Fold this sequence. Notes:
six-stranded parallel sheet, seven-stranded mixed sheet, globular, alpha/beta, single chain
Amino acid sequence: MNQYRLIFEKPRRTTIERRTVPQPEExxxxxxNRLSAISAGTEMLIFGGHFPEQMAVDTKIASLSGxxxxxxxxxxxxxxxxIAAGKPDNAGWLGRRVFAFHPHASHFxxxxxxxxxxxxxxxxxxxxxxxSMETAVNLLMDGRPLVGERVVVLGLGTIGLLVTALLSxxxxxxxxxxxxxxxxxxxxxxxxxxxxxxxxxxxxxxQTAAIMGESNGDSRADLIYEVSGKPDALNVAxxxxxxxxxxxIGSWYGTKSxxxxxxxxxxxxxxxxxxxxxSTIAPELSARWTSQRRLQTAWEMLARCRPGRLITHRFxxxxxxxxxxLIDRAPHETIQVVLTYA
Length: 342
């Protein structure tokens, strides 16, 4: 039996390694992958070569140890089934559906403590969004939306759509999504967004203000999430920000850069900038929130939001290059692209 493993060889080029399926060591389990999600954010930076070389790939996930450099195995959202155990004590895992933060591969071994059993009521299509949902939960925790606030989400990829889905469950005055792709704006509408724009409108600030309404003479956003992956979006965010607006930046730009217009109203408006990254929990919340509690919340949100409907394309792992090429050239056609395994 063969193992198929995706490798980023160089910018815009992937290859599939074929090896013998690994055998689990004594305290390991063997997982047959069923589905893995391609991140249109971080993974596409890797695909395009826009990562800072020698920076650690991840400081928390053992399967992603090492530094960013080619050739690189990557990916962090796999759902599969345990098919073998290294010792009899772990036989109870056999046949269980599990989620793993693991690079794209048809089979892989993992320690039991690194695998997350799927709740019975969660399909694999929904479960493959666990990593993205945990990120969305973390963004909500960092932004802390308040009742009656006006919130803008810049970027309606998978993360932005899940943030929108969670925000729509709050008693907010407005949830406005901005993305150039119609397919993503339609998905945001289905998740409950109250206003949608492409971001190319000449009078964007005026139009969003009309939806947000006026409070004490101000019709600017109270809270803005920047999750587009595009540094230029920060200037759009600053144009929509009001006095002490909270701007939460969830995007990782890699080596991309741009000129930010800090010379305008930003300074006098005391706009608050916060970086949000799922590897850690905000220090002021960490006394009560653990990563396990946040992860359990993400499972619960998957059950409520059912994001499996965001899957637009499925490719066998042997056709992974076609999947990345599609995301790269046709973002107007894609939301979540996944790899499948026979």
